[in-house]
Amino acid sequence: MPSRKGSKKPLSLSEQGLEKMLADWNSFSDNKQKRIFGTLDRRSAEELFLRVHGHAQAELFFCLPEFDRKSWIRLLPPDDAADLIQELPEAGRHHALDLLDHPTRLEVLGLMAYKEDVAGGLMNPRYARLRPGITVDEALRYLREQTRAQVETIYYAYVLDRHQTLLGAVSLRELFNAPSDKKLDEVMTTADKVVFVRETQTQEEIARVFANKEHRALPVLDAEGHMKGIITIDDVVHVVQEEATEDMQKMGGMEALDEPYFKIGMGDMIKKRAGWLLALFIGEMFTATAMGFYEHEIEKAVVLALFVPLIISSGGNSGSQATTLIIRAMALGEVRLNDWWRVFCREAVSGLILGLILGVVGTMRIFFWPARETLYGLHYPLIAMAVGCSLVGIVLWGALMGSMLPMVLRRIGFDPAAASAPFVATLVDVTGLVIYFTIASIILHGTLL
Amino acid sequence: MPSRKGSKKPLSLSEQGLEKMLADWNSFSDNKQKRIFGTLDRRSAEELFLRVHGHAQAELFFCLPEFDRKSWIRLLPPDDAADLIQELPEAGRHHALDLLDHPTRLEVLGLMAYKEDVAGGLMNPRYARLRPGITVDEALRYLREQTRAQVETIYYAYVLDRHQTLLGAVSLRELFNAPSDKKLDEVMTTADKVVFVRETQTQEEIARVFANKEHRALPVLDAEGHMKGIITIDDVVHVVQEEATEDMQKMGGMEALDEPYFKIGMGDMIKKRAGWLLALFIGEMFTATAMGFYEHEIEKAVVLALFVPLIISSGGNSGSQATTLIIRAMALGEVRLNDWWRVFCREAVSGLILGLILGVVGTMRIFFWPARETLYGLHYPLIAMAVGCSLVGIVLWGALMGSMLPMVLRRIGFDPAAASAPFVATLVDVTGLVIYFTIASIILHGTLL
Fold it and tell me: Which domains does chain B have, with CATH numbers?
């Protein structure tokens, strides 16, 4: 029992109260979580324990008294138990495994052999099984018996032969809908028509299969067609959230945190941010080198320096848009690698148009600025032209770099989300300076330069 | 029948073939989609039609011959029919509604009255209902009858009184597990313990409820507790994907596209990108103004200009990290508005440490650069100091701005995701210049300036 202090009456939560607490759970501090957990009665505490995920669950488990842990970990289905154990510190894992009953321990060890983010690591090995050759009525009776077993769902059942090879799948609804004396083999969807996933498929791929509607559960098969487990759609909602969060954080220019904002230690968070920030900083140092190369021009025409931030940031923004679009479209399967030429053409056109829009606005801004002559000198029309032309080139360049970079990264086996907005901006900054000063040199040659 | 040319034999797709085609569907051009659709046999075409979403479904519907449309639209459950009709051009909607049978038309009209992104617009009004007071055996019989009706699922049934007030909920599994002659009222979860959503709750909130595991279906109630429909978890996977995509696109500095990359028209895409790009550009113009203000200093020490891109981009990157973290944490409910002070403190500490790291690296870079005296002049140690101090200030400033801005936006009723990385970078660029030149003026006063 989590309420160990024993002084106050343990708190019982209504379903709505529990729901509300869960919604806020990740924003509580560790201590607050433990305090609340300690004040709940056994039923509410169990409900809470069952409903929180991976890391949070492991923390609650950790603050239970030793002698209590066995009955709590046995509440979990094997896939959740495996997740919890993997969240524990190395030293605690063996101990936690020992708390499980023998057959569950074997299942959990089997699951832990998979990487967490593939089908094998996500599936539940306990699913409803049926033998071939029985009638609908017998199948219904079998399923009814299996409700007492800890199968993940009885709404989808799988017909297996003696070697665990998948012969077919049937939903409870189909069984309900069929005449009692019909043969199961006539009602089920035969294996060649069943959608399945391989044990090694990544959770990203699985999420995509589920997003194509209609499936609420998928069987997981090994290379020989043996059924290893079942993945249900409720596992996938969490996966989809997680994948999106990871991608966003990478796209924001850092490593994925893997933990809620308030849960991750300050040191860990800084480590995950400092790496990329430093890498970008070192990349951005080339801007100083590039500008050093044009120091002489800047000395002659300081006015050129005034527009540097405006111009390079426009390239960065255009690149940020393009890279965000393409990374997400690739994650959703809307854009594939061999679409690169179509993407290139599309981005070339939109980059050019966007560049023209900004270029015109930028030129006008200088041309019609009230204090233009004192600020930009007598040659302000030439400056305006140089800035305008550079903007067209740099915005186009940003769109092309931003869209091609994620595809190049995937091509060479990296995560496209690493082509973060800041990364693209840095690349565009350095090259953008070269574009700007080159165009300016040409246009201002013989006058200012 | 979609194959109208009639010359070639229509194509039949296996389940795996269909699955593969669906995975790639959104990357096909409109014409390719129509061509493929036209070559399929009726069964495969129907499967495809049922599995694609909103916009894609509406397009397939649109390329059916008029006389065929009735039998196709009647394949859809009312929530999907409402989605499809809302995707049609204004003029086609009435016509499509007329194709439905009378009771379905009423249901669809009812659904269309809701906004698309609230519970009411997402729910299916056809769910399994039971009367109170019956036995488990009777309940099972009723459910078996309802499998023939077009209810969304028979796995979750709702017990209603004559006024459609929700009395309780029961899963088929619970019914299976209970003795046949037990009263339904004893088996069901009573209404006070049933988790439900209100018809006006947004899909973002609903996705959060589902992400807290355990629920696979939720009843939708109006303010008086009458049951209006059911939302199942498979509707939510799509919603979660969609919400994440919208947020990412906003965070990348543009409007959400609402359509797959290759599907959206070039004009629309440019419009959705140009607005923000232009707004950011106009914001960024203040950098030219700010730098104009320091033109005199730059003239005296051109070397200062060399580090402008390096310094302002570091602030932008730090801001991009912070804003990404906070926007996502708010979307997932990990961070709430009244956590702002905790966020502020956390970001102050990490911003300061990150700033110190970059500051030290930046100082060293100048201090130990081989060509330091020719490039940066005799006063290079002072320049190094000015750059280093500015970096600390600007990285810290970026982290604070980036984290507070999404919270301010939500506070005043805007979408926090609008605090995109480019938006924060623009703000930080302008203010960062002021910080940099102020610090430089102080440090270099009496020597270079």
Answer: 15-117 (1.25.60.10), 128-249 (3.10.580.10), 266-444 (1.10.357.20)
